[in-house]
What does this fold into?
Amino acid sequence: MQEQESASAAAITLDPRDIVLILGPPGSGKGTQSKRLALDLGTEVRSTGDLLRQEADPRLMEIMASGALVPEEEIQRILAEALKHLEGRPLILDGATRKPQEAEWLLGLLPTIGRRLLAVIVLKLEEEAGRDRIARGNRDRQDDHPECQDERWREFRDHTLQSIAIYDRVGLLEEINGNQDTDKVYRDVLAALHKRAGGR
Ligand code: AMP
It folds into this structure.
């Protein structure tokens, strides 16, 4: 335990093939943790939500504004592009697979392109706490409105939990209590990664 608590980013060595996937419900802090991790590990980070917003395709923006998940073919397309572009560099993926089909697809694809998933980190948070955080936050996002959040949580329960179960079955899952202050969550994220990639 002592060793886990003292894990630091400097003690984690990512291999150029490594991908770390960060998942969690709305308000769990995926974006914050992913960016901080990428900065400290000196690696790239990609969020499928951000990539979709950058594309600004009106058809997909409409789906996103409702809180629903976009079709998996779109996620497969943007992830395949990002992976091609970032070949040979480790990568943090934020929110990148939220349906079981997407998880199966990623697990099938990675070995064929010389990549591997190092860990899937899930930031666990109860719905009430997640909603409360979003209500207190100051993001200007249409899908943060309460009625869209109903849909986002439904999607999380109906689809994303199933995709997380897939990663659990193949031994990649690292669950972290997301209902702690940001620094403590981050220390737990580092400890989980250190366990898998420390000192190699
Ligand atoms: P985020 O910025 O991570 O909250 O994502 C915003 C929205 O983008 C989500 O509510 C979905 O509509 C869409 N999205 C992002 N990632 C995925 C994914 N892996 N699968 C399906 N839809 C996604």
